[in-house]
Design goal:
mainly alpha; three-stranded parallel β-sheet; 7 helices
Length: 174
């Protein structure tokens, strides 16, 4: 499964049909206990840090963390025109996320007790856009149908729209 169902499974220990986070239904219901909730009840300080907007308040996947930080908005994302939007132009790259995470953790630990802690740190660096190399296309001749490539194009277009907060892209960028 993709990001929301997979993370809901990691957090709850349930398969997607058990927690209900599936394509078209991305909300994790409050009735599902999570690892963060269990650890909170047992004295842990739980901290979540995500560089993916699909792991946070819009899907309720931040539930039960005592502290949760969204670090996906790149202040440079709309400052220049580009032919193809890349995650590193829209979303903070992993190096920046880790540096900010270290700052946040220093703040968290400066005000905390000596309780054990659980840290969830999600990095989005290895994601889209999915643009295969010429070599990959050559090696996969016949593997991908026109329908599959149409889905890839739609997927790339959809994530660009989502991450640019609805800014309409010119056709050459879609």
């Amino acid at each position: 499964p993709w990001t929301p169902p997979a993370h809901a499974s990691m957090f709850t220990g349930l398969a997607p049909h058990g927690h209900g986070v599936v394509e078209g239904q991305l909300w994790l219901g409050d009735q599902h206990p999570t690892l963060a909730g269990y650890l909170n009840q047992n004295g842990y300080q739980t901290i979540g840090i995500s560089s993916n907007p699909l792991l946070g308040p819009i899907t309720n996947l931040n539930k039960d963390f005592k502290s949760f930080y969204e670090m996906w908005k790149n202040p440079r994302r709309l400052s220049k025109t580009v032919k193809f939007l890349r995650f590193d132009e829209i979303i903070l790259n992993s190096t920046e996320v880790v540096a900010k995470a270290i700052e946040l953790l220093n703040r968290e630990f400066s005000r905390s007790t000596n309780n054990p802690f659980f840290l969830f740190l999600q990095l989005i660096g290895p994601h889209t856009p999915y643009i295969p190399t010429d070599r990959a296309i050559t090696n996969q001749v016949g593997l991908y149908s026109d329908e599959v490539w149409a889905r890839v194009r739609r997927y790339n277009k959809d994530w660009r729209y989502f991450y640019t907060e609805g800014r309409i892209l010119p056709p050459e960028e879609q």
